[in-house]
Records
---
Amino acid sequence: MGISVKELKELDESSYQIIDIRDQIEITHGSIAGAVAIKPEEIENSEKIDVSKKLIICCSRGKFSNEVAEDLRQRGLNAESLEGGYIAWIMDIMSEPQELNKAKDVEQSLRKKFKKTIWSRFTKAINTYELVKPEDVIAVCISGGKDSMLMAKCFQELKLHNKFDFEVKFLVMDPRYSAENRKVIEENAKNLNVPITVFETDIFDSVYHVEKSPCYLCARMRRGYLYHFAQELGCNKIALGHHYDDVIETILMGMLYGAQIQTMMPKLHSTNFEGMELIRPLYLVREDDIKAWRDYNELHFIQCACKFTDTCSTCNNEENRSKRVEIKELIKTLKQGNPYVEGNIFKSVENVNLDTVVAYKQNGEKHYFLEGYDKE
């Protein structure tokens, strides 16, 4: 039993409540206005839920939500699944006439409203870490999400103010997206006046039947394809949309799950593609500010949806929940007692005191403090 987006729009808004059961990371990329984000097992007893209303259950593509809605109906609640899920809701928005000056309005918001929180931090990272140099040809890699699309718009703005010559090419790799996901990416690029170049691969098909760490393999293959295609286009750098929050989460993940202290670097030389570099221009930009920019401009994006997330097999599945979600929740909890915790995590890898480190690695070689201890 499901309800289409069209049917939902015909209902009185006061008669229903939309319940978003997707993973927290998916929700950060975009959600339906007014929807309540909650785990399925918490719906029945949550104070956020008005059980007197029709409950519209939303997941990524309307598959896992069917099961949840059916379970709620068996418990006596009036619940229906949103057919097609969040992607259907976005597709409905994409079918509506778009504003003629959408791109100009978005660009103006970067110069005005988000100058301090986004534009200034973007340019600070560019200058601090020397990410863009004369004669660079940069492949700005667009996945379709909020981060990479913001990065594309920032690079367009940078080109207007550049003090030296460099080129930018906007690159989209299609690892075998569904038709809906591909359309969302192309429509957003069109509406935001980002001239993308799309190249196709079969990465999703290649890793779909891999049982051990398919996501890790997928990420490695994507990076390799991006380097290769960017190099074919004459680029010497690829730009990825990782932001400040990704950096501090990576630091904690390395400590808690990898037993090591490491960070996501602002730039890296490629070890497999000679002359190529990876840069992260959003390194100092906060994710909350990116979401604020997205919502202010009424933009709608998707998380990179592969065959695993498309089937909703990981939606709020406790066993498969992302470690990054756990880290996000940990940082949120720590911040309640210490508002400076995020900045302290970020600065910790800038203030490493080797005199107080038992061992460390450099160029792949491990060193112990005992090596020079008796020479002091």
Note: The chain has a mean pLDDT of 88.
---
Amino acid sequence: MTAKEAYTDRFEFSLDDKGRLSVPVEWRGEAFEKRFLVMPSSDGCLRIYPASFLGREMEKLSSLGATSADARRKSLEKLASVIQAAEPDQQGRIMIREKFRQHAGLGRQAVLVGRLDHFQVWDPKRWQKIAPPATTFEEVAQEVGL
């Protein structure tokens, strides 16, 4: 990730009549990329990565053998065909195409969840069903050995 910051925290926003969703101001600073890639997830949400995501994945191809690189490239091409590029407007909103809103079950409300190198967009009811319980730094530190 070329950004210097991670996507953290959770936010609730409304989508406007045109399907635009605000990107939190905390994720729009100088340390974050200005363009995004919106992609459907099998989890029933949308995953939104900084635009450099695909470039980084393409760079990894050069370190693989020809057979592995060809297979990985075909998978990335398949992924590229279902990605929507998005750039925030002056108010910090990105357009979420109808097919993506339908995939995630989005109505007027959305929950944006930071996932370090990307963020997810969830329908609030779907998010409630899978939201992890509250945790503390100490609990996570112990799990990951910090």
Note: The mean pLDDT is 90.
---
Amino acid sequence: MKKSVVYFTKDISPKGLIKIYEALGRELKGKVAVKISTGEPGGHNFLNPKLIKDLVNKIDGTIVECCTAYRGNRFDVKNHWKAIKEHGFLDIAPCDIMDEDGEIKIPIAKGKHLGGFDIVGSHIKNYNSMLVLSHFKGHAMGGFGGALKNLSIGVASRNGKAWIHSVGRTENPDAMWGLIDDQDGFLESMAEACEGVISYFKPENMAYINIANRLSIDCDCDSNPHEPEMADIGIFASLDPVALDQCCYDAIINSKDAGKKSLVDRMYQKHAIHTVETAFELGIGNREYEIVEI
């Protein structure tokens, strides 16, 4: 299999972000969804609106999110809209909570856990293409959060998140907490959900960017995240989400930054690379890549 291209720049700026998107050579057409994490109130590591504004406007994108499965300040729609506003995203672009008006099931062609379907916000039907714009960082449950997590858990509705976390055993967010004992099954379920979303949009209507800054061991969904212990790395982009997350993972593992230890330990502890392994097995992308620095 031919290696996938992953573009990289150390320039974490609005201009750097536009430059790396343009390097992908893909025009996202029609109504474009820009999937980010809007961040849990109290946290401060989510993508800075000032950083992403120019790119989102360049592609005439709509920032999209879904409600959380945990009972934080983005569990219900009203409070989620408040968080989106307070975090500054309404100031830079149109925003959409995709499961505000319900959810739909989309088919999954491959996999063994999710019963052949993913549960996503019903507003997904309003979009023709998607830019998966992710803050790459650690995660308390997934080990790390990048393109694959943003594409799976991020696009899933509140109930869809429960479906993935419970490895296809419940759609009830409150019931899921008693069903999170199968770590590898959860990681495999995330990969299965990715296949569903990519098949829905078609690969040619997708693009992926990971911004590796504020490299906390905790996710943007954490209201009190651990402060980063290693320095920012840069921006990575690819048309292959598997290669992209593999590349970012490798960049952490192979970093000479002594502050990487806690993040590396978190990724190892949660077997984080297994999501990438499974996504490759499902044919979503390639783990072999070449880096093109711009």
Note: The chain has nine helices and twelve strands.
